[in-house]
Structure formats: structure tokens, C-alpha cells
Amino acid sequence: MNTTRLILPLLASLAGVATAHAENLDQTEALTRIGQVLTCKRVVSPEQFDALVTAAKGQATVQASELSDAEYSLAQPVEVYGQPITQLTAHAASDGEGDFNEFSGMFKGQRVEDIAKLSGIGKDDLGHYTQEVGNHDVSLRGDSGSTYVACTQDKRPAQ
Predict the structure, then answer these.
(1) DSSP assignment of 76-134
(2) Cβ-count burial of 60 within 10 angstroms (0-12 exposed, 13-18 middle, 19+ buried)?
(3) Is the dihedral of CA 7, 64, 38, 25 positive or negative?
(4) What pTM was computed for the model?
(5) Beta bridge mates, 71
């Protein structure tokens, strides 16, 4: 018997249960969970992230495709490191190490050094603001006068 035939429907149903559960959350709990995803304290799939954004009364501004990341806007900000975020992205990718998902949010008009101080994230050997959280990485980067926080899930093999 082909185990793939048995496993794939099970995985699909589990993803559906998690997505349905996220849609039943109230807005405050959904925002809390989004903050946990952005700081690598909660692991989700892109579909589960989308469901969290929906539960938070946010909306997709750009649908994910092979050419584009999913982009979202929140009506009510999520607080991360005590600062508001209303713009989010979800990115599924792969590199030489394997597949990973990255979820990010933008601190509009904030300097990366200020967010690094609030978060306690220091510079790594290459001068990037990165912190390992298990096999995930939380990183900060500045761009055009704003700072982005990103959680790259499954960056390294699980220990």
C-alpha cells in the first residue's frame, strides 16, 4: 500500500483543522499569535498565517504567487517589541539547505538600531541583527527609513 496516499489526506485535514481554528479566534488573540509568529515563538504554515490575518480582520493586499510574496495589511496593529506593525508579508522559499517559510512585518519609520535595542537582538559575526530561536532565525533589517522583523522558520535542521 502506498503510504503517501494515506499521509497526504491526513496532513491536508490537519492543515484544514488548524486553519479553521484560527478563523474562530477573536481579533485580539489572532493579533497576539501573529506577533508570536513574527518573533519565532509560534510556527505556522503560510495558509495558517493567512487564516490568522483573516481572524485579525486584516486583508491580503497582494496574493502569493510564484512571482510574488503574499502581502497583508492589518486595520489594527500587532504589537511587537512594544511597537506597532500593520504591514506583513509571507514568503515560502528554499535554498541549498531545504525549504523554509519567512514571515515579516514592518516597523514604519523606525530605525533598526532602536528596534534592536528594544528586542535585545544583537549583531551576528557578519554584522546582521539575527537571533537563533531553535532552528528558526529572527532578524531585523533596515530599509528606506523603516525596519523589518522577520522570522525564518526551519532555517536549520531540527536538533
Answers:
(1) EEEEETTEEEEEEEEEEEEETTEEEEEEEEEETT--HHHHHHHHT--B-TTS-EEEEET
(2) middle
(3) negative
(4) 0.81
(5) 62, 89
C-alpha cell of residue 6:
494515506
Under 8 Å between Cβ of 157 and 135: yes
pLDDT above 50 (res 15)? no
The packing angle between helices 3-23 and 46-55, to 10°, is 20
C-alpha cell at 94: 528554499
- The predicted-structure confidence for 31-83, as pLDDT tens digits, reads as follows 999 999 999 999 999 999 999 999 999 999 987 776 668 899 999 999 999 99
Nearest to 43 by CA among 134, 141, 147, 149: 134
C-beta of residue 30 within 8 angstroms of C-beta of residue 55? yes
Other Cβ atoms within 10 Å of 40 Cβ, number: 23
